[in-house]
Each structure stands twice: as C-alpha cells, then as structure tokens.
Specification:
alpha+beta; 12 helices; 32% helix; four-stranded mixed β-sheet
Length: 431
C-alpha cells in the first residue's frame, strides 16, 4: 500500500458513517479513487441513496480456476456520543501512537488491513491460482438490507460476466470480522479466530387469560401462567453439543486459568440458550413474553419448535418465531485457518512471542450469517498486537467508548493478511 495504513484509517474514521442513516457512499468513493489510481477493476453499487457496496477483483490466471478468496468488511459504524469519549469519535486524533475513533476496531481497521493485502498482491504481480475479491459493504450494523444482503440477491457484472452476488461466495474462503484479538496463557499468545457463529433469533410467546370476561372483568390467571413460563425458561437447560471447534479449543486451553469473559464464551459455545428479554401486554388478559434465542450450528428451526411446543403445552400459550438465523462452523484446522496461523507466526518472528491460532464459535452475529447456504468458509480475523489490546479489552471497545488502535498494531494486521492472502492464492497447488 503506497499510503501509510494509519493515515488511511484516519481518513476513513473521519467520514462519519453512523448507521442509521449510514451515508457510506462518500467513504466508498475514497476507496474507488484508490482503485482507479492502481488500475484495478471495480464496481460501485448503489443500493439506496448515499449507500452501497464496492467490489474490486484480481482475476485468476486460468479461466476455470477455483472459488475466490473474498476479503469482506463493512464500513458503517454504530453511533457514538462525543461527550462520553476522551477524544472526539469522528476526528481520528492520534495520541502516543493510538488512533481514537469509531470504527477503529469495528471494522474500518479490517477494511484497511484487507485493502493493504489486496493492493500488495496486485503490486507483486504474477499469476493467481484463484480470483481474489475485495468487498466493502454498507449497513451491517442494522441488518445488511442495503449491504451484503442486497449484494447476494442482485446481479453484478464483474470480470466480463454477470452473476448474482450469492454465486461469488459459493464454496469460497472468506476473511471477515470477529477475531484476531489475542489472549495470553503463560508464555504463549493465542490469537482468536472466529470460525463459526451461533444462530441468533427472537421468539414471542402469547399467554391469554382463561377466565377473562371482557376488559372490565379481567383475570390474572394469564399473568400467573406467563410468570410461570418465564421461570420455566429461566431454569430450563437446553440440550447442547461439543462441536469440533470447541473440542480443539478446550484441548489447547486445558488447565488454563481464563478470564471471566473467556470462561463465559467457553460455556456458551457448548450450550443452546433461550433468554427472556421482555414481558409486555396492554392488560392482564394477554401477556407477551419475548426471548432471545442462540442455537449452536446443527440445531435448526424444527429442533427449536419442538422445545417451543413443549413450553406452550405446559403453560397453555402460543408461540411465534419472529426471526431465526442458522449457525455455522467453518473448518477449524488446515486450509485458510492454517495459512492465517502461519502468517501470524511469521509476522511475530523476532519478537520472542510464541503464538497459536485459536478458532472459536461466536455468540454474536455478523454478515457471516448470510453466507450459510453458500458453502463459504468464513473466518473472522483482523490481528492486532497483544500489548495494544487483548480479546477482553477489544470487546469492551466494540460499540463502546474510546475505541482505538495503535498504528503499529494496524501495520501488524496489514502484514499478517498480506502474507496470508499471498500464500492462499499462490501456494494452493503446492499444498
């Protein structure tokens, strides 16, 4: 990258892309100018006024090459209240090497890291064993209606052919958000790599009073049953399983003392959960109980409905699944995961740091959830230096206050992804 990564990140942060309303087009135009100067083919898609996606690509040497490597990030951010921050959230001020601003951890830093890798690949020249795609999207923080979801469902013309965005991801490897933050156990640093996500959903129960005789002669039995339902859900342990990713996670960390946050993640990775988030109703004759649902990969809508029917039979109520995404689990070893680990170790050479990749299944939800039916292998990875931030400190900054990254950490992430992307598209045939 001809521009210093830290200076580019500052420029991106200074473009306020708070979602809503988003307004990502100005930032995408900045990236568009870079591709124009580098003579790289791209498509800037408008998905709504002031919003869109930017797709750029480097073609493979052979027309019938394998599926692409996709570098995916989003450029919208959540809101920030300036009075709560030490430094203004959209001015990208630098202090002792730390760049402060909304998006420096979620995920404009990833956009810079992936762009650095993409441009380095172009500058190095040579033939590619597979296409490499850079895709910066809008609207991830509000559901991706005008971002990746739009891209998947609409045709795009790139590389001399027209196809639906979904086809691009078929059987692809994807580097996205959600990992790259280290934890330290003894003398070793484990770099968390998000290789899966739980399916997230919302369920609503409706409990109606049996004895009500109109609005003026209400009955409390509906509320009583609703409270019984709430207590039942709170005490009920849903069946779970130990995924291959989790088995390897526990093997690598066997006997290690983890932080409270990491302990919660280890527990959550083995259990399906249903949590009451709201109890509401216009009167006691009808009560609604809303629940957050998180399902491990392999547990689907039919399985959940069995649990819901059992609860409804017990408490004489009805249920409605408002939303439900499918969880996924990408390959935890070998393939792109192994390449990311190799690149991380090489970038740390000479520092005396012993590092290892640690795949995990996330409790949260990102654009990876939209790729489940494409067969894509999605890895969340934007690596940083441990003295800059660990997993626990990074989580506190995502959607929080005083979000920041050190310029050396950003350069490290650029180095890792540059190494990894180069190996993924040039050494594939040798492996």
């Amino acid at each position: 990258m001809k521009r210093e990564p830290a200076e580019l990140l500052k420029d991106l942060v200074r473009i306020n892309t708070t979602n809503p309303p988003g307004g990502e087009a100005k930032l995408l135009t900045l990236l568009e100018d870079i591709f124009n100067k580098e003579e790289i083919a791209f498509v800037h898609q408008e998905t709504a006024p002031g919003r869109g996606n930017l797709l750029a690509w480097l073609p493979a040497a052979k027309e019938n090459a394998g599926p692409p490597l996709v570098l995916l990030s989003h450029v919208d951010v959540v809101g920030a209240q300036a009075e709560q921050w030490r430094l203004p959230p959209f001015e990208a001020q630098e202090e002792d090497g730390y760049i402060y601003g909304r998006g420096t951890v979620d995920t404009k830093q990833l956009t810079v890291m992936e762009l650095a890798a993409f441009l380095a690949l172009k500058e190095a020249g040579g033939s590619l064993s597979r296409p490499v795609v850079f895709l910066a999207t809008s609207d991830e923080e509000s559901g991706s209606t005008y971002g990746l979801q739009w891209f998947l469902e609409h045709p795009v013309t790139a590389g001399g052919r027209t196809f639906y965005g979904r086809e691009l991801f078929t059987d692809s490897d994807v580097i996205s958000e959600g990992g790259g933050f280290p934890i330290r156990i003894g003398e070793k640093e484990f770099y968390l790599c998000e290789s899966g996500q739980k399916g997230c959903g919302v369920v609503e129960f409706t409990v109606k009073a049996r004895k009500a005789k109109g609005p003026f002669f209400g009955s409390g039995d509906g509320m009583e049953r609703a409270m019984g339902l709430v207590e039942d859900i709170g005490k009920r342990e849903l069946p779970g399983t130990v995924l291959e990713t989790v088995r390897r996670f526990e093997e690598k960390l066997a006997g290690a003392a983890l932080s409270p946050g990491m302990e919660r993640i280890r527990t959550a990775m083995k259990h399906n959960t249903m949590t009451v988030t709201m109890v509401s109703g216009k009167n006691v004759n009808e009560v609604k109980v809303t629940c957050d649902v998180r399902l491990l990969p392999g547990f689907d809508r039919e399985w959940l409905e069995g649990i819901l029917r059992d609860l409804c039979a017990r408490w004489d109520c009805e249920y409605r699944i408002i939303s439900l995404g499918q969880g996924y689990e990408s390959r935890a070893e070998g393939g792109l995961a192994a390449i990311l680990e190799e690149a991380t170790k090489e970038a740390l050479e000479g520092t005396g740091t012993e590092a290892e990749l640690l795949p995990f299944v996330s409790m949260g939800s990102s654009d990876g959830r939209l790729l489940v039916d494409t067969g894509a292998r999605v890895y969340g990875y934007s690596p940083v230096l441990s003295w800059d931030m660990t997993f626990d400190s990074a989580v506190a900054m995502v959607h929080g206050i005083n979000e920041r990254i050190h310029r050396d950490s950003l350069a490290f992430g650029c180095r890792v992804l540059t190494l990894a992307v180069g190996r993924a598209v040039r050494e594939e045939e040798e492996r």
